[in-house]
Amino acid sequence: MSLRYKCYRLSLGLLLYIFTASASLAHSPEGATDTAVIQSAQMAQYSRPGHKRPPPPGGHKMRPPRGGALQNGGFGGRPPTRNHTAIQKGQLNLIPATEQPIAENRVRVRVEGDIRFIEANSISRHKTGRFPNSGNPHAIRAQSIRYRISASPRLNGRAAYFALGVFGIGINGVVLDPQAAEWYAGKHGSAWQYDPLGAAVPLGLDANSAHVQPNGTYHYHGQPDGLLAQLSFSKSTHSPLVGWALDGFPIYALIGRKTNGELSEMRSSWRLKSGNRPISNGAPGGYYDGTFIADYEYIRGTGDLDECNGVQVVTPDFPHGTYAYFLTRGFPVIPRCHSGTPIEHIGPRKRK
Fold it and tell me: In 10 A of CB 144, how many CB atoms?
């Protein structure tokens, strides 16, 4: 076989490979792209020397999370970024939670020394919306999630923001994943990341503010009403323990005991900006209304909580006091940063 013929066959094979890969991406059925499928690409992107991270909401400087708040389950690389042009909020129509869980809920928690081990299948005990649906084309599948978090967490003196990733895990084994991989004009990693609860982009969220990753992971983007109901949540008593953040601190919802001892609803210190967004350098324009995460800013002292929705409190689970996070009624609902050091190695692992 001549050298020229060998080169011809090699070139033909290469062209065929490129065509097949391009066609596969162009016809990807991912639909609503989401957090878990792009984590590996995020870590690779942010590990490049000189690469700048996108700014967190409100313009605070984004600091790299220690240990890997962006490592949460890299499944198959990043799908094509969708090109959105919406610049104002839509109507958030949550899908009724009418479907029974597809399998038995499995969650196991054990503490060994200073480490809390959590294993779960990410199947809730409560009902869910119907998946796939028009806003989310993915079906729920049982997972194999394994977390290794600190049982003796410490504050690190700074807020560790994450543009994408899991904030924590509910005590039912379903992860709290507040942000979505959706950006204005498809500019992945820009400052103009859509807030999933802003409803400018249809994501098929159910009555638990949850939907499904491309790999089948059911996860919360907002207040998990089904979980709270099963925990007998009441506005007249302190919130039950809802879950654990990746840095090891406990998570509660809404109701806590303030510094004056009063039991009441905890208020976020994030506020909607006033006026209009910029229109230069790829900014979307329009007025600040909560469409984008960057529509909000943290103003210290305007609420009960710090920028990560946390506070030093006494709770029924920690009568001697602890730093704890609270899910809030207003933005960010689920915190968008950690006050401690996130874990180094987590799941979920991709099912074969």
Answer: 15
SS3 at position 8: helix
Q: Which residues of 58-82 are buried (b: 16+ CB within 10 A; e: fewer)?
A: beeebeebbbbbbbbbbbeebbebb
Residue-wise pLDDT for 250-272, tens only, equals 999 999 998 888 899 999 999 99
Other Cβ atoms closer than 10 A to 133: 18
Q: Tokens representing 126?
A: 């409560």
Evaluate if pTM is beyond 0.85: no
- Per-residue pLDDT, 2: 54
The H-or-E segment that residue 304 falls in is: none
- Cα–Cα distance, 216 to 196 (Å, whole number): 18
Give 59's DSSP letter. Answer: G
Would you list the domain boundaries of the chain?
Answer: 49-340
Q: How far is CA 237 from CA 242, 252, 265, 303, 316, in A?
A: 14, 12, 10, 20, 10
Give the C-alpha separation, 293 to 335, whole Å: 12
**Are the C-beta atoms of 349 and 239 separated by less than 8 Å?**
no
Q: How far apart are CA 58 and CA 181, in angstroms?
A: 18
Residue 4: in which H helix or E strand, if any?
helix 3-26
* Local mean pLDDT, 10-residue blocks, the chain (352 residues): 51 45 34 36 30 42 34 40 91 97 97 96 98 97 95 95 93 97 94 96 97 97 98 97 98 93 95 97 96 98 97 96 97 98 61 35
134/92 Cα distance (integer angstroms): 14
pLDDT in tens, 279-304: 999 999 999 999 999 999 999 999 99
